[in-house]
Amino acid sequence: MNQNDYTLLVVEDNISMLKMVTNMLTSIGYQNVVTARNGKEAWEQINTPIPRIDLVLSDMIMPEEDGLQLLQRIRTSEEYWNMPFIMVTCVDDLDKIMSVTEEHIDAYLVKPVTEAVLKSKIYSALKKAYDPDPYHRALYLGKKFLRQGRLELAIQSLAEARNLQPGQSATYFHLAQVQEKIGRMDEAEENYKRCKDCSNDLYVNSLDGLARVYRHKGDHAKAMAVLQKAIAISPNTPDRHMDLAVQLSTLGNHDEARSSLATALKLSRKEAQIPDKYIEACLDCGMDAEAEAIMQRNMNSNMEDIILLNQMGIVCRRRKEFDRAKLYYERALQLAPGDESLNYNYAVLLVDLKDYQTARNYLKHVLRQNPDFENAVTLLAMLDKREAAPST
């Protein structure tokens, strides 16, 4: 490999450390080096077409956006997901770092960095990505096909990787992901367990996978147990607390479910939008005020979201705030006047408001579009029966 063919991005907020690392890179032959002071600046550099970044060497603890946040951006992107990434840290407890890191890292460097170790780690990361041996080539293709949804090809490539180097945790993990997607849950469970038993950096992810498999099988106690184990290791992932809340609620532990959900919401407080599954979990746990707060926040980003307006109507109706519910439904119906669910829910609200004739009109509108809408048929029959009953 020719070192001048690659551009390296060094991300470090400490100026002295930044100069030291860039000087080391120049000394070992890497002339094309660009720098950034935090993860946000680094992401802007990565998305700049020229120069094309081939490897990131990033500090872990930085202001504004740290190395782990930058890593997550890269691994979840469509274009850069396989970019080599080396993390530099002052922390010497590598087992702990690797267990709480939720995305793949090519190497760790502990400060103070030595020139010999730096040279070795960079060479290895670049070679795996840009001049791979048969194992890493097969693993890359398996991961690529998995991301593209080409699952049979993913299985073929990952099986090839497993045959080339048996016992590699990454192979087991990605095989389990494919098997989970195609419904082969017993095989997925087996491979998640294999990955868990021989991996530090994928250990927590394997626990998440096992939780999904157990949930699919209906074994909510096992799902809860592995989620609790994952949270004990990596406590700052909101989705994990939310998933635990769902399992606790399913098992009837409603107080603990609400506590886990409250933790998930606290960890998500800086997010601009929160997924709809949080709203559903809040409603299931009787946390209507929290559900409404999420929907209000999400609607600040997208005031035209019909689903959110519908959910807001449901929440307000449950809280007997009928006038507010009416405003949400009317706004949603202006956007989607033919929506069956909106028309039905609005009719239910009108029944609460004792506006029976208008409710009948909305129900008839629903049934003209869908004569088999069972709830609408039932509610209309109830109104017909009420109208036919003699007044007293």
Description:
- The chain is 66% helix and 6% strand.
- The chain is built from 20 helices and five strands.
- The protein has a five-stranded parallel β-sheet, with helices on both faces.
- Helix 19 (356-369) runs antiparallel to helix 20.
- The longest helix has 16 residues, at 115-130.
> In what range is the share of β-strand residues?
5-15%
Number of strands: 5
In angstroms, what separates the terminal alpha carbons?
Answer: 94 Å
In N-to-C order, the SSE pattern is: EHEHEHEHEHHHHHHHHHHHHHHHH
Instruction: Tell me the name of the CATH class of the largest domain.
Output: Alpha Beta
Second-tier CATH architecture of the largest domain: 3-Layer(aba) Sandwich
Output the CATH topology of the largest domain: Rossmann fold
User: Mind describing the biggest β-sheet?
Assistant: 5 strands, parallel
What share of the residues lie within helices? Answer: 55-70%
Rg calc: 27 Å
Mean pLDDT: 89
- Structurally, the number of domains stands at 3
Overall shape: it is: elongated
Number of helices: 20
User: For the record, what is the CATH homologous superfamily label of the largest domain?
Assistant: Response regulator
Overall structural class, as computed from helix and strand content, comes to mainly alpha
Identify the strand order in the major beta sheet.
Answer: 2-1-3-4-5
